[in-house]
Write a structure and sequence with these properties.
Helix content: 25-40%
GO molecular function: ATP binding; glucokinase activity
Strand order of the largest sheet: 3-2-1-4-8
Bound molecules: zinc ion
Enzyme class: transferase
EC number: 2.7.1.2
CATH topology of the largest domain: Nucleotidyltransferase, domain 5
Shape: globular
Number of helices: 10
Distance between the termini: 16 Å
Strand content: 15-25%
CATH superfamily of the largest domain: ATPase, nucleotide binding domain
Low-confidence stretches: none
Family: Belongs to the ROK (NagC/XylR) family.
InterPro entries: ATPase_NBD, ROK, ROK_cs, ROK_glcA
Oligomer: single chain
Length: 320
């Protein structure tokens, strides 16, 4: 059994694990992500530290895969830009190769997660997959005929900044009306907070859950309220689902996958989100009624998908 280490570098945590050929995580560890004011070397130290700890327990690993939130160049060696870190055109693979004695591969975290869901999770057996990750923003990945589609510069799959509302909400990217302004975790929290701040009578349940402090409201609190039967929270999630369906219909027009896998924190809402998404998707799909419809399913591997995928991709690359 060939083992590989996978590392997922997120905005707050660096998670690492030893992953076997069936996608099982045998050993795991984690560290806080160094603040973005820190030099690139500090993040490297954290990665090396995680690898050493895991290797002390399983010395027989064959490769190290690193999934990073950011733009990873198509050479899978360089991080072009990572919003949460100080990396700007960082030659990560070469820097780490001097310190880690194993083949190393760097991959965008959403690509790694999509790969994992295809190999071991919600999209097993599918040939054409589009993954949509709903976190603070929206990230994603495209896998066609069993291969990740990275684009000429490695930046394909940044679906969050497709425009869905002309002249809509302002986005951090500088444009207006981006999809992630309507269908992400941030959008959910923004809308829910606005209702509390407006003292809306329909937001009583939500307000009570945070003692009226709107800034303490989070996505999971809204999901929990919806599960407990709060009509407003259910409606807020349905609205996010509706916008999700609109964007997915656009993606179907472009890529025609057999399965959409919905991951990220908001996907924990399950059918409260996916039901409305499927409904809108069906109403907006190009050629509806005359074409097969893609399935829309929840991701299955949770927040370990990134590290599992990174490990598997690195192992495959090393064995070629
Ligand atoms: Zn944007």
């Amino acid at each position: 059994m060939s083992l590989a280490i996978g590392i997922d570098i997120g905005g707050t945590k660096v998670a690492g694990g030893v992953v076997d050929e069936d996608g099982q995580v045998l050993v795991r560890t984690r560290r806080d992500t160094p603040h973005r004011s820190k030099r690139p070397r500090v993040v490297e130290d954290t990665i090396v530290d995680v690898v050493e700890e895991l290797r002390a327990q399983r010395p027989d690993i064959t490769a190290v895969g690193i999934g990073a939130a950011g733009f990873v160049a198509a050479d899978r060696a360089t991080v072009v830009f990572a919003p949460h870190l100080s990396w700007r055109h960082e030659p990560l693979r070469d820097a780490l190769s001097k310190r880690i004695d194993a083949p190393i591969l760097v991959e965008n975290d959403a690509n790694a997660a999509c790969w994992a869901e295809w190999r071991f999770g919600a999209a097993q057996g599918e040939s054409d997959v589009v993954m949509v990750n709903l976190g603070t923003g929206i990230g994603g990945a495209i896998l066609m005929h069993g291969e990740l589609i990275r684009g000429r510069y490695g930046i394909a799959g940044e679906f969050g900044h497709m425009q869905v509302v002309p002249e809509g909400q302002r986005c951090e990217c500088g444009n207006r009306g981006c999809w992630e302004q309507y269908a992400s975790g941030n959008a959910l929290v923004r809308e829910a907070r606005a209702m509390i701040l407006a003292n809306s009578p329909v937001a009583t349940d939500l307000a009570a859950r945070v003692d009226g402090r709107a800034d303490e409201l989070t996505g999971p609190i809204v999901t929990e309220a919806a599960r407990d039967g709060d009509a407003t929270s259910t409606e807020l999630l349905a609205e996010i689902g509706h916008w999700l369906g609109i964007g997915i219909a656009n993606l179907a027009a472009a890529f025609d996958p057999g399965t959409f896998v919905i991951g990220g924190g908001v996907s924990a809402a399950g059918e409260l989100l996916l039901g409305p998404a499927r409904e809108t998707f069906r109403r907006r799909l190009t050629g509806r009624g005359y074409r097969p419809e893609a399935q829309i399913v929840a991701a299955r591997l949770g927040n370990e998908a990134g590290l599992i995928g990174a490990a598997d991709l690195a192992r495959n690359e090393a064995s070629e």
